[in-house]
Amino acid sequence: MVKIESRPSKSRLWEYVLYVDFEGNINDENVKNAMNIIEEKSKYFKLLGCYKKKEI
Predict the structure, then answer these.
(1) To bridge 2 with a disulfide, which of 12, 21, 35, 51 should be the other Cys (CB 3.0-4.6 Å)?
(2) Mind spelling out the 3-state secondary structure of 14-27?
(3) Is 28 helix (H, G, I), strand (E, B) or coil?
(4) Which parts of the sequence belong to the ACT domain (predicted)?
(5) What is the number of alpha carbons within 13 Å of residue 47 lying toward its C-beta?
């Protein structure tokens, strides 16, 4: 995991949305399993994107 952020939900008081950034390949079985577990345990799950890492 690279970063985790929490933001207040726009729909309900005292409810928060978590944004998680992590490094991994979407085709890796460990990554797939981790995302499946997160999705099962979350009320709401949305994959915002998968991007190639750019070296600076």
Answers:
(1) 21
(2) CCEEEEEECCCCCC
(3) coil
(4) 1-52
(5) 12
